[in-house]
Amino acid sequence: MSTDRGNKRDKRSRDNQDKDNEFIEHVVKIYRVAKVVKGGRRFSFSAIVVVGDGNGRVGAAMGKATEVPNAIRKAIERARNNMIRVPVVNTTVPHQVTGRSDSAAVLMKPASLGTGIVAGGAVRAVVEAAGYQNILTKSLGSNNATNVVWAAIEGLKQLKTAEQIAALRGLDVAEIL
Fold this sequence. Notes:
Layout lengths: L1 H19 L3 E14 L2 E13 L4 E9 L2 H14 L2 E2 L11 E5 L2 E7 L6 E2 L2 H10 L4 E7 L3 H13 L4 H8 L3 H4 L1
Parallel strand pairs: 7-8
Antiparallel strand pairs: 1-2, 2-3, 3-4, 5-6, 6-8
Helix pairs in contact: 3-4
C-alpha cells in the first residue's frame, strides 16, 4: 500500500512540475548591490528574468532581495504578471523593427526557415521565451543586460502583423502586400 501512496505523490508532484514548466524562464543577469552602512557594507541582489510560453507571450522583470533565490522568485512572479503578446509569423518576426531603451538598441529582422536564432545573451533569452525560431538580431549601443532586455521587449511591442496593419488602414491584406 505504501508504494501506491508514493506513486500518487509522485504523480501529483509531476503535475505541479508540468504547470510550472509551461513557462520558459531565463535568468539573464544577477547583480550584487552594496549599501554602505555604519557597520560596513550590506549586500543585496537584483535579478533580471525573462519568462515566456514559447508561443507568442513574453515578459521580463527585475526582482530585488537580500538573497539570490528570493530575488529570482520575485522577478519570475513579476514577469509572469507583465507578459505581452507578440506576433509570430512562420517562426519569425513579421517585419524589421528596432527597440530602444536608454542607450541600448536592438535591431530585429525576419529570417528564412532554417536560420535559427542569431542573437546575443540577453536578446536570445527574450526571443527564445517569445517562441521565435528564426530571427536575426543585432544589439547596438549599450551592452548593459538590463537595458538590452528592455530594448528587445520594446521592439517586440512595436510588431504588427499584415492583418493588423490592414485593419488600421481600412484595407484588405492583399492591398498591403
